[in-house]
Known about the structure:
14 helices
Amino acid sequence: MIGAAKQEAGVASAAKLPLRVAASGFASSPAIVYRALTGGLPADALIDDDHAFDRHVLASILSAAMAEPGPINARCGLGADDFVALVTSFFPHISVLLSVLASGEPDVDEEAAMVRDLLLAHRSTPGEVGRWLATMVARRAMEPDHLWEDLGLRDRTELTRLLMRHFGPLARDNTRNMRWKRFFYRKLCEDDGMVMCSAPVCSQCNDFAECFGDESGESRMAGRRREIEQRAAGVS
């Protein structure tokens, strides 16, 4: 019996290997991953209704995360079960391919957990999507770029829409249009009775640009797509 069980496990592992190789093969570019998930390019995404917008956001986050090393679910902050549930719900045509890249439970980062709990405390939509997004946004907020870039979104307005839709009470508190990462940490400090800033008012603070500076720029996916097109055209 033990020998038979080992043999079955070996067959199962062998069956998964081609899927894992195939899934890893298209992960070199966020734009390619996004197209595999949605059938179109990020620039062409139609996000008029809430479901289409949520699907675009989730595809963008997965695309950005998959281009980085490590299990994709860990790069999103999700456990394997939540990751499989997400891709099965929104991207069923490719869920089997993606599911083999999920691996166990990600390490719990205390800082990310604090941001996640802040978002969860201000949820404005029911269902699993808001819970998944709280975890994913918090995990991606640990990356070094602007949050909208770390989420793979096209610009900051999409991030603001995401937060207004799913975490409305929190998002509406950002009345001065502070950068979202800085705003999250300011709220966490306030909740703990701490003061993040040394200056009495923002206009007198030396870090004003860090909190309120411009967040425009080219999205990661647009940049990667441009690089691929230039290489194909022989442009250095």
